[in-house]
Structures are given as C-alpha cells and as structure tokens.
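Good morning N.,

You mentioned wanting to compare the apo and holo forms, so I went ahead and generated the holo version with flavin-adenine dinucleotide. This is what I fed in:
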Amino acid sequence: MDAEEWDVAVVGAGPVGLLLAGELAGAGIRTVVLERAETRSGLAKANGVVGRSAVDLARLGVLDGTGLRVVSPPRFPFGPLSLDLGFGPRNPLHVLPIPQRGLEELLETRARARGAEVRRGNEVIALRQDAGCVEVDVRGRAATVAALFLVGCDGARSFVRKQAGIGFPGVTSDEIAWIARVTIPGDVIALRGDGFDIAEVGHVAAQRRIGFPGGAFTIAAAASFDASAPEDLYVISAHEPRSGAEPREDVSVAELRAALRRVLGAELPFTAACDVRSTVANSRQADAYRAGRVLLAGDAAHVFGAGGAALNAGIQDALDLAPRLRAVIRDGAAVETLDAYEEARRPAVDRTLAHTRTQAALGVDDESGRGLREVMGAMLETRGATRALGRMLEDG
Ligand SMILES: Cc1cc2nc3c(=O)[nH]c(=O)nc-3n(C[C@H](O)[C@H](O)[C@H](O)COP(=O)(O)OP(=O)(O)OC[C@H]3O[C@@H](n4cnc5c(N)ncnc54)[C@H](O)[C@@H]3O)c2cc1C
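and this is what came out, ligand included:
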C-alpha cells in the first residue's frame, strides 16, 4: 500500500484541529487535516470563546476584516450565580461572541490560506506508530497517510485517544440536558430586568441556570451571541435526573415538549424548534497528552461539566503545542521536549476542571447545593472574590 508523507497529520477539523493546522502550516510545517464529516455540521454548538483565547484569536489576526470584536462583559454566569465584573480595565474576562460554525469557517479559511491541506470525508480508522513515524488508514482510501507526528483533535469520543491506549478518567453527570433553539413569539415573551417574562412559566433570568420543581432551565436570546439571529429565537436547555438515559442527537420536538413540561411544570410557548438533542455532561482529562508520536488536543484531551470553558482550553492547547512541534520538526529538538506540552497544559486544565465542577455543584438542587449557593453568593458580593473567579474563567 502506498503511503503519503507529511510532517503532521491532524485528525479532526473542529476549531482546535483547524487552528493547530493553521499555526503549523504558517510555520512551514507540511500539515494535513483528516476530517470524517463530508460537510461542516449544522448543529449549533458553542456561542462564543470565553477567556484569554478570545484575545489570542484577535492577536493572531483571525478576526481581521470580520467586524467581530472581543468584549469584557460586566456580568457573566458562574453556574447559577452571576459574577458582577464591572466595567473598565479591571474586568479580567474577555469574550468573543461568535457561533462555533462561524469560528470554524474563519479557522479553516486561514489554515488553507497558510498552506494546510484540509480533507473532508476522510475518517481515520486505524493507526500504527513506530520510532520514526505514525501511519493511519482512512476509510475507503487505498493510500495510507504517514506523518512524523499525529495530533488527535477528534473530539470527546476521540478514536485517536483510544487507539493510542490513553485513558480518560473523570466523572459523568447523573443529569441529562435537553437542548434546542426555539422560536417564541413576541406576544408570549417579554424582556424584563435580568431576564424574560414567559407566558405560563413566569419570570426567568437570562443566561443562568434557574431551579424548577422538576429540574433546572436556562434561556438566552440567540441574538445575544449572534447578531444575525432572528429576535424571536432562543437557546434553551432543560436539565433533569438522567435515570439511565443516553444522550441522543435525534430527539423529537414532542420529546422536547414533554421534557420541558416535566422540568417547568408548565408549557413553554414555543412555535418551532431546531437543533434539538440531549446531552450528558462529562468532566474528564486524558491520563497522558502524548503517547510516542501521537498527541491529543481539545476535547480529545479534556471535557468539562459546565459551559464556556472548553474552547478556551482547546485553543490554548493548540497555541502551546504548535511551536513545540515546530521546534522538533524544523529545529531538531528531541521528541521528549514535547513532554513540556503536558507539563504546561495539565495544571491549567486541572484548574478548569476544578472551577467547572464547582459550577456544576452550585447548580445541584439539594441542601448541599443550596448551602453552597448561599455561601458563595455572599462571597461574590465582594469585588475581589468576583474578579478572582473572573481570572479563573479567563485563564483556560
Ligand atoms: C450545545 C453545545 C454548546 C457548547 N457551548 C460552548 C460554549 O459556549 N463555549 C465553549 O467553549 N464550548 C462550548 N461547547 C463545547 C465546544 O463545542 C467543544 O469544546 C469544541 O467543539 C471542541 O472542539 P474540538 O476541535 O476539540 O473538537 P470537535 O469540535 O468535537 O471536532 C472534532 C472533529 O473530529 C472529527 N472526527 C472524529 N473522529 C474522527 C475520525 N476517526 N477521523 C476523522 N475525523 C474525526 C469530527 O467529525 C469533528 O469534526 C459546546 C458544546 C455543545 C455540544
């Protein structure tokens, strides 16, 4: 079987793989991205990049000519609580509001312009490595792809991680979340104060997890993340005990309505729904970031049980790893110097796991959760404590 030869093969054209490919190709490293999907997924994922990665993307010129800009929101959710970060330079938090699909388009254009080859419809189905290179088989292709290094940016269920024999210890939530984008007509929802008055449901604060007798509910106007979104479109999630259910991407609108009824104890008055699915939160980190010539980055290396942290961590992975690979491939540094990648990233990811687990614990609707909310809510009345948490969200 013929083998093509590359410096680096990146598996997965999500935001992390595409950013990494752009950084490597821009440094003269011959880079190929192998992506299973024929086309980019239409499912809505992240609404933005939270933390210092937003500033890094601007610094790298990714936002040039887009009209997008990084902001420092005066308030930001921390689980069910809200951080009052204030205005001005002492606000430590940066946010880039951009739908994930838009970010991926920018990063793919940049990666290609810098010389990376992005191949869609290329699922990696086997992986072998020896002391000198890594070789992969791609479904339906006769030629294997060989590279000096392979980086698994292939998401939380990473095939690369499993093939490399790297474990993924951590915890899985006992809660299931039903998520969707729904249209709620203006005559049954009104903006008031910190949230919305919704017919049948009552007042619900925006962008915060609000407890209901059957679970918890969050709602945000889609336009608050994406200026081009219709003004009657909302991003919602309803959380309830998992009871053994597995997450699915084929949830029907009837199932969504039933879940909302169980959680809210009322009908949410929406007229249409899209991107309906269920998810179960995981909080895990790979037990190694490198196995020989195979490395991991992004969700393949870590997943978090609260929103807003994953892209920040994944982008930091890519920005840390790219110059280290360049030093080995171009400047003759020893392969072992790549261990510094894990030494740099693991402590940062440990901190992110800690604050996302804290956010999840704050949302639990029992005596302990209520106690935690009361104590932390009181602490967050001081600016110092609020800004310390803001800095944690920033760090990634
Ligand atoms: C509903 C939702 C909302 C979210 N909101 C936020 C948010 O607001 N902020 C935030 O920071 N994060 C958020 N996240 C998390 C964020 O979407 C992920 O962290 C991000 O997608 C991870 O990027 P990645 O590049 O590591 O992996 P992915 O985006 O998962 O990309 C992995 C790619 O690898 C490909 N692939 C997998 N296996 C193979 C294979 N064998 N061969 C070839 N290709 C393969 C997949 O097709 C995929 O394209 C959200 C996630 C969801 C689901």
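The domain at 3-168+286-395 is CATH 3.50.50.60 (FAD/NAD(P)-binding domain).

Happy to go through it together on a call whenever suits you.

Best,
F.
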